[in-house]
């Protein structure tokens, strides 16, 4: 079983170290897509970070940090790891661990992004959801889709806007998400919004990401 005790904050990065490989689907920089992975890294970089090859630099970072390139999923963000929010939620025999970091410097409305040139800005929402349960591929992907719905709902409620179009943002241009399951315990064939799993993801991610967004907005307000 994966709990908050599996999360280690090393300052420059946070690592989730699972007891065994998890079934994973993600848009992470390193090892995106579908696979079986044991280590999950959310790394902070300086706002001036601009290597010639970010993927290669990330590989070097992973190896220097003593993680296996083939067993690690890794994301990066300019958000300091002191602003990372993580929680554990459970409903009967199923539980989830949520880890979120939020930056909103490059909020974008994807339905209007074709109308404007969007200059690069710092700002990324990185989301990790770990499920103590046995999921089909369908449930895993439905859970990920539900998590994106939660993110968009929160941005709407906080009136986060695309600075180019002036409309409500649906995310940032560099968001990353990872969902993973232990493949042990209660079985979930589906993970949509009215399923037990979908409801748990909806409640849990909403609570944790809300705290993350509020923390970011408070920080930016204090630095104006």
UniProtKB/TrEMBL annotation:
This protein's name: Iron ABC transporter permease
InterPro entries listed in its UniProt record: AdoCbi_amidolase, CbiZ
A Pfam short name: CbiZ
